[in-house]
Design a protein that fits this description.
By secondary structure, this protein is mainly β. The chain is built from two helices and ten strands.
Length: 137
């Protein structure tokens, strides 16, 4: 039996100075992720978070985060840190989601990004459908 009192919570701290959080340029979106410095094409931001198996008990227990889970290979990741702050844009996506074959996923700049520019990627059609049918909280 596992002694739960000896399992510490995971500590996560964001330290990448290339990025900053601020009010999104999308009305009603809340906060977004911005380039703190100019970024060249091909720069990467690791998609960090908790990885879970789709359809597992852990997936069921984290249903509250279904709208935000990102598929990385065979896993769903509940993003944390900067990767959780990237919003959707159908027309202005300057990030692509890339799986390099490892268990890591990345947001990768697909063009030069100016300092102060908001970072976006294109949500999967399933996520867009879920957002459009989700009722407010």
């Amino acid at each position: 039996m596992i002694n739960e009192s000896k399992i510490p919570p995971a500590l996560f701290e964001e330290t990448d100075r290339r990025f900053k959080i601020g009010p999104s340029t999308i009305a009603g979106a809340g906060l977004g992720l911005f380039a703190a410095i100019s970024l060249t094409e091909g720069e990467r931001l690791m998609i960090q978070g908790i990885a879970i198996k789709p359809g597992s008990i852990a997936d069921q227990c984290t249903a509250y985060a279904d709208l935000y889970k990102i598929r990385i290979g065979p896993f769903l990741v509940i993003p944390s840190g900067f990767s959780a702050m990237v919003n959707h844009s159908e027309t202005d996506a300057n990030l692509d989601k890339v799986n390099d074959g490892s268990s890591c996923g990345w947001f990768v700049t697909n063009r030069f990004v100016e300092a102060g520019e908001e970072l976006f990627f294109r949500y999967h059609p399933y996520a867009l459908e879920q957002f459009s049918t989700a009722s407010p909280g």
